[in-house]
Amino acid sequence: MGAAAAMMTGSGSAVFGIFGEETGAEETAEKLRNMGFWSGVYKLAAGFSGE
Q1: pLDDT per residue over 38-50, tens digit each?
Q2: How far separated are the first and last CA of the chain, in Å rounded?
Q3: Which pTM value belongs to this model?
Q4: Is the per-residue pLDDT at 31 higher than 70?
Q5: How far is CA 35 from CA 29, 30, 32, 38, 39, in A?
Q6: To the nearest whole percent, how much of the chain has pLDDT over 90?
Q7: Which residues span the domain enclosing 17?
Q8: How many folded domains does the chain comprise?
Q9: Is 44 inside a domain boundary?
Q10: How far is it, in rounded angstroms, from Cα 51 to Cα 40?
Q11: Could you tell me where the beta strands, DSSP code E, fall in the chain?
Q12: pLDDT band per the 50, 70, 90 thresholds, residue 30
């Protein structure tokens, strides 16, 4: 369920994770929302493989 990778922006104002499957991303986002954090799930642009 966890992210394959996670990073923080340079200023530390945002954190993001890369997930192999949408289900894991949705479950993690829901857990973060339940803890009071803003969270969303977004897909990579078409044609971007991430490799």
Answers
A1: 999 998 777 666 5
A2: 21
A3: 0.73
A4: yes
A5: 10, 9, 5, 9, 10
A6: 59
A7: 5-34
A8: 1
A9: no
A10: 23
A11: 5-8, 15-18
A12: very high
